[in-house]
Design a protein that fits this description.
Radius of gyration: 32 Å
Strand order of the largest sheet: 15-27-26-25-16-23-24
Number of strands: 27
Shape: elongated
Number of domains: 6
Mean pLDDT: 79
Distance between the termini: 62 Å
Length: 742
């Protein structure tokens, strides 16, 4: 296939078409799995939703392609196909589209993002420094009256301003000039085209006026315009950069090495990527499973909070199934691999998360929508003004250029460009002061649109840690002995007891028996903590987690534990309900505790026993029923659902993968921050719309005045700066007050 030159690269002109790269064989980077071939590539120059559609549709047309998915955030293109299609054909197709591709390397991509941020920050610093100095010189000219300043002095000041402005524009304007050039080269016009035109015309007219001895120059307007817009561009980059670590955090759960048992009984250390189905692996206590497997020998407690969110471990025995990412707690296991690392549950969840991130990448923010209508209107007005003054009014070239320049400056999208970033910065700053971190640039807009809220249970609506509820059932002296035994255990119940009693001595000769409990010796007396059968007690039904403590020949004592609901949970659910939002509870925990929590909070829609894939599927079902979904979760098992939801929130105590997948992270205990974030998002959206309304009204008044010649470029520059100040002040109104959950 071939693509004509104007179609190369980003259709929105946000990035230039990539230069052809030296041909690289991609065949060594192809992996085969379940009869299909897989290839992951790093794409250069993909910037918008149009890039996603363009790349995916072109690759999808190749023979044998099963699936194509581009993650705009990470720049990773994942391709799956069957048949004889060569990987080099995929690379050639991308090259012809103007998107050079290389084998995906997360480290290289991260460095590119860091370099881009540093570049924008340097441009911003140079523009800010130059703007201050040029304004100082301009004030001298503006404040002079009559003959206080001679023509020679004024011309000298203008020329000094030019010496500052020209290199500043050449350096700090590169982000806009490159984007505008790429857009024009591809036959399109984006927001950076009128910005670049306004800057160049202001600079050109100012140089002409300075050399001709004119009274006014507009170097300050050109540099200030760049300064204001670079603020918005850098802030947007910083907000976007925070959102892209979820998949790598989740993959970190998968062990990178493993112990493989050989036919003679010896073991060898191998890389996890070298594990093949059928290999025998030795899993020591405290280590994570590198792949999905089946237990061959041994019995142990396995931490499955990664899957269920439930803090209590599960016992696995011979023949039991274990999953990559879960942690072996108590005893050595020998397992047989049933998949390689690419076929593990962790890898499946990463693919789900990337699919969710892709859908967020395709989300079009209000500023992008406004830009599509704004650019052609501004271009048309400037051209009409130039032709009108030159042809209809019979004016000279200088007057026509001055009038067109005034139109471009006064209508330059500075206010429009700041409309969203200014509000985002103030809103995110206010949320940060309340302990809520906003990680994604368009997260506020997505949260404002949410109509249904989905909560996880354990660690989200509940504290997430077991609390010992009948401490008084054990005498003080016996509690010290119980704590000495509990400190030797890894089970959540043992940790809950140890946390209550604090530091102290350890029991002697301790032994933890998977699925049973913990035993040891204190002052020559055997003590036991565990199940009813382990201590010789009759089974006693209870609503929550229980354990038994037996010391010597005394009667066993029942210990009860409970995961407490956050104190602000009921108020938060009520506040969301009053605001017209519906609520669901999705949990991997057992049905009984899930129903109890849901009933106590008044949540009618609650579902239990869900796997991470189940949660992800239900998110899609709820979206069809209610509209945009907000997901709140804290566990590793919530990471995929958090990515697939339209917007997501996680507490600061959440797992790293969950925090990385979330758009908001709140540090305060409880869930009151959920309502606060939603309320602020709604207010922020209102202020953005107000800013857009002001920008439209401002241009509707200012543009005709400039076209009529009633506005000089100097007044246009002041009006443009004033519009930016108005937009910023409107954004700062968000600092007033805030919602309270009651």
């Amino acid at each position: 296939m071939s693509v004509t030159a104007p179609e190369l690269g980003c259709p929105s002109g946000l990035a230039p078409a990539g230069s052809p790269t030296e041909e690289l064989s991609l065949e060594p980077f192809v992996h085969e799995r379940s009869g299909s071939k897989h290839l992951e590539l790093s794409i250069t120059g993909a910037k918008c939703a149009g890039c996603i559609a363009k790349i995916e549709s072109a690759v999808q047309r190749l023979p044998g392609i099963e699936s194509v998915r581009l993650n705009l955030s990470t720049g990773k293109l994942s391709v799956q196909w069957q048949g004889s299609l060569a990987a080099s054909r995929i690379g050639q197709t991308l090259q012809e589209l103007g998107y050079p591709a290389l084998p995906f390397d997360p480290g290289t991509r991260e460095k590119q993002e860091d370099d881009q941020g540093q570049f924008l920050l340097k441009c911003l610093g140079v523009a800010g420094f130059a703007a201050m100095n040029i304004m100082l010189l301009s004030v001298s000219v503006w404040s002079a009256n009559g003959d206080e300043m001679g023509e020679a002095t004024r011309s000298l000041i203008h020329l000094i301003s030019a010496l500052i402005a020209i290199p500043t524009v050449a350096y700090s304007g590169r982000p806009f000039f490159r984007s505008a050039y790429a857009a024009l080269k591809s036959g399109h016009a984006n927001m950076d085209v009128p910005i670049s035109l306004a800057v160049f015309l202001a600079l050109g007219v100012s140089m002409f006026e300075s050399l001709a001895g004119g009274e006014h120059a507009y170097f300050d307007a050109a540099v200030m315009l760049l300064f204001f817009l670079l603020i918005g561009r850098w802030l947007d980059h910083r907000l976007r950069q925070r959102a892209h670590a979820a998949a790598s955090d989740l993959l970190a759960l998968q062990a990178t090495t493993a112990l493989r048992e050989l036919s003679d009984g010896s073991v060898e250390t191998i890389a996890a990527r070298d594990i093949r189905p059928g290999d025998l692996l030795v899993i020591r206590p405290g280590t994570r499973l590198p792949v999905n497997a089946q237990v061959v020998r041994g019995q142990s407690d396995i931490d499955v909070s990664f899957l269920t969110g439930e803090s209590l471990p599960q016992v696995v025995r011979e023949g039991g199934e274990v999953f990559a990412g879960t942690q072996n707690i108590s005893q050595r296991l020998t397992v047989r691999a049933t998949a390689d690392v690419s076929g593990s549950l962790v890898a499946d969840l990463v693919r789900l998360m990337e699919a969710g991130q892709q859908s967020k990448d395709q989300y079009t923010v209000l500023a992008d929508k406004a830009a599509r209508a704004y650019v052609p209107i501004v271009h048309t007005l400037a051209v009409l003004t130039f032709l009108g003054w030159l042809i209809l009014a019979g004016s000279g070239l200088r007057e026509a250029v001055m009038a067109a320049t005034a139109v471009l400056i006064i209508t330059c999208p500075c206010a429009l460009g700041l409309a969203t970033p200014a509000v985002q910065v103030v809103a995110t700053g206010q949320l940060f002061r309340r302990g809520i971190l906003v990680k994604s640039g368009n997260a506020l807009e997505r949260l404002a649109k949410a109509r249904h809220i989905v909560f996880d249970k354990t660690g989200t609506l509940t504290v997430g840690e077991l609390a010992w509820t009948n401490r008084e059932a054990i005498p003080a002296d016996d509690r010290k002995k119980l704590a000495a035994l509990a400190r030797a255990g890894l089970h959540p119940i043992a940790r809950a007891i140890a946390a209550v009693e604090g530091a102290g001595p350890l029991a002697l000769d301790t032994d933890e028996i998977p699925g049973q409990g913990l035993r040891g010796v204190i002052d020559g007396v055997e003590v036991r903590l565990g199940s009813a059968s382990f201590v010789g007690a009759a089974n006693h039904p209870a609503a929550g987690p229980t354990s038994w403590f037996k010391m010597g020949s005394t009667d066993p004592v029942l210990l009860t534990f409970q995961d407490q609901v956050h104190t602000d949970g009921q108020d938060t659910i009520n506040a969301l309900d009053r605001s017209g939002l519906s609520v669901s509870l999705l949990s991997g925990d057992r049905a009984q505790p899930v129903a109890e929590v849901a009933q106590s909070l008044g949540i009618a829609d609650h579902r239990a026993g869900l796997s991470p894939q189940d949660k992800a599927e239900i998110i899609g079902e709820l979206r069809e029923e209610h509209g945009p979904i907000a997901m709140i979760g804290d566990g590793l098992n919530d990471a995929a659902a958090l990515s697939l939801a339209d917007v997501s929130l996680a507490p600061g105590s959440a797992a790293d993968a969950a925090q990385s997948a979330a758009d908001f992270v709140f540090q305060k205990d409880g869930v009151g921050s959920v309502y606060q974030a939603w309320h602020m998002a709604r207010r922020a959206r209102q202020h953005i719309l107000q800013n857009f309304g002001f920008a439209v009204a401002y241009n509707a008044v200012a543009a005709p005045l400039a076209m009529a010649g009633l506005v000089t470029p100097l007044i246009a520059a002041l009006a443009m700066s004033g519009s930016s100040v108005v937009v910023t002040l409107n954004a700062m109104r968000l600092m007033r007050g805030g919602p309270k959950v009651s």
